[in-house]
C-alpha cells in the first residue's frame, strides 16, 4: 500500500523562516538607510565643494579687485604728488620777479619811507606764500614716505637762533614781545637741522599769527631727564575745546574771523607733528579756551654735542666783487628782474631765454657764473649743463634755479654739473653770496 508524503517534510518551520526573512529585510533596510545617508553626505559634500569653489572664485575676484584698488590708489597718490610738485613749481615762478622787484625798490636810493614799507610788505607776503607751498608739499611727501632726515647732533641754541631769524621780523612789525628762557648749559639733540628749524619757526610763527598786535610770546627750554623740553606759549586767541583734540590733524583749523588774515591751510601743525615724531619726539598742545592763549610743548631726545673746531674765516680774492654772469631763464619778467638786480650790484649780466641759446652763449663766451632755470622748454637746464660740462669750453660756476625742491631734484642737478641749487623764490642775499663767491 502506497503512502502519501507530507508537504512540509524537509522544510524549516514557518516561524524560523519568517524571522530570517525579516532579519534579511531589516539588514537590507539598514543598508538602504546607510546608502541614503551616504548619498545625502555626498550631496552635502558636493554642495559644500560647490560653495567653496564659488567662495574661492569670489576671493580671487576680490583679491584682484583689491590689487586693482591698491594700484589705483598708488597711481592716484603719484599723480597727486606730481600735481602738487608741478603746482608748487608753477606758483613759485611768479614769486621770483615779485621778490626781485621788491628788492630793487628797497635798494632804490630815492625810495621814500612809505615805498620802503610797501616793499617790505611784498617781501613778507612772498615769504608767506613760499611757506604755504612748502607746507603743502611736505604734507604730501610725509604721507607718501618721501621725506628722509639727515640726522646729526645739533645745538639747541643755534637751531632756535636760526628759527628766530625767520620769524623775528614779523614779531617786530606787530610790536609783540618775545621772552626767551634758555638754560645756561648747552643742550643738543640728534636731528635734521633744516627740519627742526622748520618745526620751531612754525611754532613761533603760529604764536605770532594768532596773537594780537602788542601781544606776548614766550619760548622756554630745559633739560628734563633724558629729554629736552621746549615750550612755545602766547596770550593770543587760544584754541577752542572742541578743536584742541584735533589741532594736529591735517586741514584742521579753529574758527577765524573774516576780518583777520591769520588763517592758513591747516597743514603746518600736521607737518610739525609728523616731523617731531620722525625725530623720536612728541608734541602736545593745551589752551584754557578761546581768547586765553595757548601753549605747545615739544619733547626731543637729548644727546651730547661733539667738540668741533671753530669755523675758519672765508677769504675772498681781490677783485671778486664783479663778474660776468649769464642768466638763462624763459620767464621774461624773472629774467629782467634778475638782470636788473645783479646789474645793481655791479656785475656784467647777459641773458638767454631758452636752453639752446644759453648753451650757445656759454660755448662762445667766457662767463664766471651762469644762473640757469632748470625747467626750460625744449632743452632743459639739466641738458644745458650736461652738454657744457662735456665740452671743452670754459666752465663757469653754475647756479640752478627751480620750483622743485625735493632731494631727488637736487641730486639730478648735481649729477648734471650744477654747483649750487636754489629753490624759487630765490633769496636775493643767498644768490648774491653765491655769485660773489664764484666757487
UniProtKB/TrEMBL annotation:
Pfam families in UniProt: HATPase_c, HisKA, Response_reg
Residue span(s) of domain Response regulatory: 324-439
Record domain Histidine kinase: where: 86-304
EC number: 2.7.13.3
GO molecular function ontology, one term from the record: ATP binding
Signal peptide: none
Entry keyword set: ATP-binding, Coiled coil, Nucleotide-binding, Phosphoprotein
SUPFAM superfamilies, per the entry: ATPase domain of HSP90 chaperone/DNA topoisomerase II/histidine kinase (SSF55874), CheY-like (SSF52172), Homodimeric domain of signal transducing histidine kinase (SSF47384)
The protein's name: histidine kinase
Amino acid at each position: 500500500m502506497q503512502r502519501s508524503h507530507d508537504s512540509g517534510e524537509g522544510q524549516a518551520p514557518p516561524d524560523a523562516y519568517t524571522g530570517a526573512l525579516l532579519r534579511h529585510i531589516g539588514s537590507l533596510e539598514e543598508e538602504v538607510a546607510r546608502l541614503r545617508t551616504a548619498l545625502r553626505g555626498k550631496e552635502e559634500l558636493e554642495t559644500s565643494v560647490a560653495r567653496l569653489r564659488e567662495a574661492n572664485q569670489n576671493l580671487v575676484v576680490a583679491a584682484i579687485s583689491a590689487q586693482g584698488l591698491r594700484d589705483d590708489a598708488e597711481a592716484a597718490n603719484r599723480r597727486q604728488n606730481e600735481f602738487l610738485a608741478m603746482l608748487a613749481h608753477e606758483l613759485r615762478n611768479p614769486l621770483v620777479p615779485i621778490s626781485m622787484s621788491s628788492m630793487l625798490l628797497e635798494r632804490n636810493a630815492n625810495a621814500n619811507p612809505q615805498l620802503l614799507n610797501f616793499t617790505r610788505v611784498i617781501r613778507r607776503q612772498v615769504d608767506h606764500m613760499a611757506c604755504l607751498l612748502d607746507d603743502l608739499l611736505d604734507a604730501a611727501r610725509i604721507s607718501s614716505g618721501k621725506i628722509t632726515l639727515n640726522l646729526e647732533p645739533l645745538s639747541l641754541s643755534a637751531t632756535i637762533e636760526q628759527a628766530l631769524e625767520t620769524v623775528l621780523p614779523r614779531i617786530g612789525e606787530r610790536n609783540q614781545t618775545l621772552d626767551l628762557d634758555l638754560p645756561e648749559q648747552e643742550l643738543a639733540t640728534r636731528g635734521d637741522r633744516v627740519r627742526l628749524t622748520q618745526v620751531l619757526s612754525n611754532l613761533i610763527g603760529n604764536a605770532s599769527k594768532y596773537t594780537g598786535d602788542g601781544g606776548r610770546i614766550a619760548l622756554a627750554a630745559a633739560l628734563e631727564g633724558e629729554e629736552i623740553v621746549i615750550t612755545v606759549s602766547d596770550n593770543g586767541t587760544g584754541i577752542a575745546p572742541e578743536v584742541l583734540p584735533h589741532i594736529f590733524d591735517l586741514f584742521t583749523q579753529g574758527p577765524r574771523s573774516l576780518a583777520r588774515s591769520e588763517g592758513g591751510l591747516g597743514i603746518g601743525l600736521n607737518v610739525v607733528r609728523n616731523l617731531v615724531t620722525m625725530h623720536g619726539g612728541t608734541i602736545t598742545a593745551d589752551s584754557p579756551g578761546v581768547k586765553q592763549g595757548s601753549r605747545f610743548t615739544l619733547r626731543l631726545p637729548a644727546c651730547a654735542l661733539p667738540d668741533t673746531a671753530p669755523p675758519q674765516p672765508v677769504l675772498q680774492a681781490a677783485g671778486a666783487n664783479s663778474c660776468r654772469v649769464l642768466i638763462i631763464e624763459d620767464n621774461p619778467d624773472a629774467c629782467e628782474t634778475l638782470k636788473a638786480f645783479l646789474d645793481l650790484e655791479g656785475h656784467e649780466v647777459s641773458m638767454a631765454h631758452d636752453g639752446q641759446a644759453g648753451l650757445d652763449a656759454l660755448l662762445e663766451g667766457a662767463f664766471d657764473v651762469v644762473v640757469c632755470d632748470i625747467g626750460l622748454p625744449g632743452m632743459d637746464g639739466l641738458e644745458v649743463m650736461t652738454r657744457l660740462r662735456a665740452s671743452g669750453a670754459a666752465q663757469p660756476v653754475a647756479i640752478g634755479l627751480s620750483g622743485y625742491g625735493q632731494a631727488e631734484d637736487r641730486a639730478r642737478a648735481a649729477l648734471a654739473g650744477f654747483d649750487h641749487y636754489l629753490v624759487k623764490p630765490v633769496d636775493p642775499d643767498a644768490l648774491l653770496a653765491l655769485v660773489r663767491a664764484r666757487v
